Predict the 3D structure of the following.
Amino acid sequence: MTDRDGTPPAAALAEDVEDLKARFAGLRAEVAALRVERDEQTDSPVEEEGTQWRYPPFILLLDGEARDDELRLLAEWVEGVLVPGYLGEPSADARWCHLWIEHEDAVAHLHALWLAWQELTDPATCGYTGPSVWHRDHYRPCMTELRRPGGPFAGCTKGEHRTEHRLPGRVPSAWHLDD
């Protein structure tokens, strides 16, 4: 038995399989090239003392100029997006300190919230449900913790700012080495 052009069916099938393999290999190479191109455009490695970070590291792992730069970017987001768009008037049940940047635990929470916001508001990385996930899994728990009566801003009122009410002396750790 032969195909219309006189080729045996098994040979024609083998030829089709080889064509599909070649097409698949070409598509795989295109996808790999697109991933490399995307990663080169979206990843902005941060170097810190010989270590190359693939993504921006958590702010508590930074110090010096790298920490100052990250803190400046965080402050722009908190003051430009979070405060005007989300925070209502502070009260005894929902505190907020305008000097939040002086509360190290608040900085840590807000930085984590900002990192999640960056990832989850980009449809390319999370689809269109990212903002909903951010509100449910990140914003609400973070704000509940920060603004609760016993939270980092517990000693702060409109007329008084206190950071020492929550901060014990620095405990030596792998993150902070004493000179």
User: Anything to note?
Assistant: The radius of gyration is 26 Å. The chain has a mean pLDDT of 78. Residues 43 and 55 are 7 Å apart (CA to CA). The beta strands are 46-48, 51-53.
